[in-house]
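User: I've been trying to design a sequence by hand for this structure and keep getting stuck. Would you show me what you'd pick, starting by listing the structure so we're on the same page?

Assistant: Good idea, let's start from the same input. This is the structure you sent:
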């Protein structure tokens, strides 16, 4: 088994209360996130899955239940996870007629996804499903992982919301540049304190970056 497939290339999550009005909000958030990740082709299916598993909690666990939604890109799979505190009300695959107003539930999730399941934990359960994303080259995977790690580091130097690719404002660009300069400066200080040559490492990093960029452009 390829262990790297279990390492998220990108991940996003949000807590919420299981109320009908939250369904459309969560759908919008997921659509925006997938657009940021370049996965618009999965948006409709992912939104439908989110609607069904959230509605399942509202109906069978109860309105107002505290829950959390997580969406992550793992290898060539988009994984959607919903955590709630009830380990007794388990989602079930029930067939429904085409003209039924309800009852589609997990049958729709089963039809849209590669696989789905439920994980039981001590005080909660996680209902999850996976959709197949378009295969990406190793260069694209590497670049995605690097960008994700960089965003995580930058978020510790400022307002993480300003670094979202969905907010392409002048303020966001300036904040990202300032944070990146602080990160690089801190790394250069650390290297110097530990006996390394900051200028030599900067040159090597630039050479490495340009080589990766050339390889990516060649593979297109």
């Amino acid at each position: 088994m390829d262990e790297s497939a279990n390492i998220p290339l990108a991940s996003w999550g949000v807590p919420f209360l299981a109320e009908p009005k939250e369904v459309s909000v969560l759908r919008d958030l997921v659509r925006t996130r997938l657009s940021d990740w370049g996965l618009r082709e999965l948006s409709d299916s992912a939104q439908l899955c989110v609607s069904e598993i959230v509605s399942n909690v509202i109906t069978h666990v109860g309105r107002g239940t505290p829950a959390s939604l997580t969406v992550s890109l793992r290898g060539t799979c988009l994984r959607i996870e919903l955590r709630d505190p009830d380990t007794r009300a388990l989602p079930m695959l029930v067939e429904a007629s085409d003209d039924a107003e309800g009852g589609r539930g997990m049958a729709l999730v089963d039809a849209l996804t590669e696989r789905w399941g439920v994980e039981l934990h001590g005080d909660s359960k996680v209902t999850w499903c996976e959709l197949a994303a378009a295969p990406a080259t190793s260069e694209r995977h590497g670049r995605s992982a690097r960008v994700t790690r960089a965003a995580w580091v930058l978020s510790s130097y400022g307002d993480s919301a300003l670094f979202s690719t969905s907010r392409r404002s002048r303020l966001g660009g300036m904040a990202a540049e300032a944070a990146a300069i602080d990160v690089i400066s801190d790394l250069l200080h650390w290297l110097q304190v530990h006996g390394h040559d900051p200028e030599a490492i900067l040159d090597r990093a630039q050479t490495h970056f340009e080589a990766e960029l050339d390889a990516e452009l060649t593979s297109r």
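That's my pick for every position. To get oriented when you compare it with your attempt: Helices lie at 20-36, 43-60, 105-112, 138-155, 170-193, 198-219. Confidence is low (pLDDT under 50) at residues 96-103, 136-141, 164-168.
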